Amino acid sequence: MPKGGPTVQHDEGHTLQKPENCGTAQLGIESSEKTGCTLKPSTASIHQLFRDVDWSKSAVGPMANWDLELRHMARFLLADTSPAVLFWGNQCSIIYNEAYLPMLGNRHPDAMGMAASNVLSSIWDQLVRAISRQRQTGRTETCEGTMLLAENNGYLEEIYFDWKLVPVTNDEGDVKGSYGIPSNMTREVNYSRQNQCIRQLSRLTGSAISVKELWNKLLTSLSYDSKDIPFALLYSLDEQLGITAAPSEPNYPCHLEGTIGIDTDRLIEQEYFDLACDLDGFAPAMIKALKTDSILILEAGDPSFHKLFNGLGWEGYELPYEQFAVVSIKEGDKLAAFMIVGLNPCRRYDSQFCDFLQLVADAVSSQISRARLSEEVARHNELAQRAQLDRKRSDMRFSRFAERSIVGLAVIDMEGKILYANDAWYKFSGLSPADQQNLSWFDSVVPEDVGLLVEWQKKVLKEKNGGTFQIRSKGPFRRGHMYSDYRTGICACYSDLNEEGEVESVMILTMDISELKWTEQQLISRSRALEESEMKWRNYAEHCPLGICRTDGDGYVQYGNNAWRSFYGFGPEPVPDPQPWLPWVREDYVQSCKDFFSRLQWSRDPESVEFQLVNKTYTISGGDATVTNGAYVVATGFTQFREDGTVDHIDFWVTDISGQKMAVKVLTDKMEEAIRSKTQQERFMDMISHEIRNPLSAVLHCSEEIIDSIKRCSAMQERVFDKTITPNSSAAARDKQIVDDVLTVSKLDSDLLVVSPIPVQPMALVRSSLKIFNAELKMTDTRVTVVEDNSLAALGLEWVLLDPKRFLQIVINLVTNAIKFTKTSKVREIVVTVSTQTHKPLPYELGVDFVPRRYSHANRASTTGSIELKDIADPGLDIFLSLSVKDTGKGLTINEKTQVFKRFAQASPKTHIEYGGSGLGLFISRQITEMLGGEIGMTSSPGTGCTFAFYVKTHRCEVPYLPPTSTEPVIRLSRSTSLTADGTAVTPGEEGDINIIDTPQGPSTPLRETSPLSILVVEDNLVNQKVLCKQLRNRDFIVQAANDGRDALDAVLAPSPFDVILCDIEMPIMDGIEFTREIRKLEREGKLAGHIPILGVTANVRSKQISGAIEVGMDGVTTKPYRIDELIAHISSVCSRH
User: What number of other Cβ atoms are within 10 A of residue 1022's Cβ?
Assistant: First the structure.
């Protein structure tokens, strides 16, 4: 702290030194601490309060530290008898004198030393702007129109001040504070506000031209002084009633004309009331005020306001206004209206307020008479205008009515001459207004009705009264599809009398009813037609073979035709019971009939039910057979609902379906018989296949054993033995082919053949396939020539996408037939021609007649094999590969040509005896050709040989990657099938297929070099068992044999394990299926360790039989006959997975 005493920091940042002995004594005020007495702050004088204030807690600071200027201004302030306030320091702390106390109200004495923003918060925004300017300019500033709410006698009143702010400066000229001098301008502000309202009232009400407008402008003018009159209700009284009338005279009805400060929607109940009837509410006080001719002031708690204010939603005493004034507005001596005014809540009622309200009432009263006069003048003018308009309308009413009326109107004289007629009458009569001078009433009707008009005219002239009658005019009637030769109207004629009561003229009214007349005639005609139609439909219903019935919603019969009654045995008499058909329904159908009727109670769609009748049968006879079945009907119902949703009626149509049921029964019996027949055929074919394939398998295995032995002999021995062995092997192949042809047909019938295209070289494929006939060609001395057409070179066709198995089946069948029928001819020559086209070949291009197509194209299967094919076909490049086989045989007749492509058919009955065969080769070729998207045909004549030709649809493809060890595919005639458990073929072939082997055959090698496999062979045929065991042992397998499933099961349970089991399926004691189930069961129970691969070896070759074997747990199936190499490959495949 600086030396010399305490300092005070000013807003300019200057620090002033103060004497150390500066205190209250220097202000001339003794502290209460010296005197030892304290006064109540609210009652003590301002000087005493000044001494008692703890200035150290205020922003001014302790009195000892006050500036010299502050001490001087404080003394001056306390001595000033006018209200004044000193705003000191940056926070504008206030110090006030005793004259300013009424303006503070209850905020004294706490306001002393407080910041002005807290004490004078309502006007501080105005004051702070002036003080801020003063701090910058150092000039005296004024602030006008500030309003404070001060408490006066327990009420808050608004006080308006104009402030004069004198700057308080130090010696350096810095403004340290502001000396505020307020001037009370409340009375002037109120006068200004009220005078403005009176001026607006005079200006607006002076232009009102009606009392209603005067009331509206009164309320508009008062809204300009919303401070003094924030609320008002204006009621008008009936000007016919005087306020001084006797009680027995009419009452005082009041009507709410408008409001200020409240929505009129809240005053629905207070819009109309009668002062004479509201004795317990506001009316007594109102009548009292009106009779005394003075302004009545009521406080908010006055009981007379309760009913009125409760209707406004102001319940109890929580009203927004403290005082209300009832102001009467008179027109001379009569009361015209009164206002209930809510006064300014921040101003008590005084004489100034009374004068203002009286001025408002007087200003309006002077305008009421003028407004009523203006209103009366306007009313009289309006009445005069209406009277004049009524006269004009009266003059034009008749003419407009006559011209616009759709009724014809005419006036005639005593002799019937037309005096006046409107357009409607001329239109009806068909006459022209231009001829009115020469027209008569009688000219308007057809000649047949003239006498009627004469009669009525005489009657009207004589009796002087009128009547109505019907006439026909000469004009034709046409409207849309309606037409008549004349118009029809209703005519009324009445006499027009003068003052003496004599007939002066006759008025004629004519209404055109042509359309109604036409409609009437049509209704009569249609009613007659409807009656005829109803009779026709009733006759139809009675003779209809369908049962037709109508019931109500409960099932009571309203109508039933003869057919319906005949179903249930009802007679012509009425049927009394509801749902009378239920007793005639068989018991197990009754519930469905009840449900059917229940659905019709709510469903808007037709419903049907089928049921069998009791005690009725349906019988048919054919030949010696008679079939009997139950009688069945089907009932269809449709419900008609009323507008209220209830059932009006239900219509039923009942149809006898006994014949259809009988047909279904007969067809079902036939189908079951056909299924049994088919099953017997399949069993027969399975038996034939099994009994032929088993010995063929032994023959084939023996042939393979002989061939293997020959390969180990010398070259000379090989040539010698080859000539003697080949015929036997060929004979076995032929027998096997017959069986496989039958199985192929069975597979075609079941749609089980699959097309699997792969890339092939067509010429190499054809040449290779012909090599299998070398031995047979040498024996018969037949020459085969293969011709490669120029079209292959022209198209640059080397590789195509084709199923070689299916293709070679066709080729081999055709070449086999050619060799068979050529070997007895003198010239034995066969020409095989291969060609291609980019379009579907026509019959003449191949020189044959195609057989009509019967079968659709086959679906392609994904190619299986070790070679992965990618981008081998372009779908946009279709190639048609054609092949023809021409021989020099004896040829065929026309009748023979029609038989060759049929199932189990040959050219003649002698063909089988002379040439052999099954009659299935060409039938199979035809089906396979059509499966491949092609056609097959032939041409032949007796003695000239035959030409067979076919084409298939293929795709050009790129050269695939092939192993370098093979330059030409080897074709092997193989009819065996080897499938794994997932249905994948081990070797490419199915029963009846041609296997394409990409690598030359060589001697077989054992599957394992380290340790040979242990194989259990389960076979009941001892020949096959011994041959198979020997061949497996020759290939270094450890083999053990079992005669049936029971022996095999005992062998498996022995300590020595087996790597794989070859099991026949058809065996005595325990077959292969049951044996496999037992093995898998033992494995699941843990009695056998691991999984023993089981490979089925069977002569059952149908797909269902093979899949059934795999489903019970076999790991694969190989069909008989098979080659040992194929079996070993299958064994290797199965063992590699386990």
Answer: 11
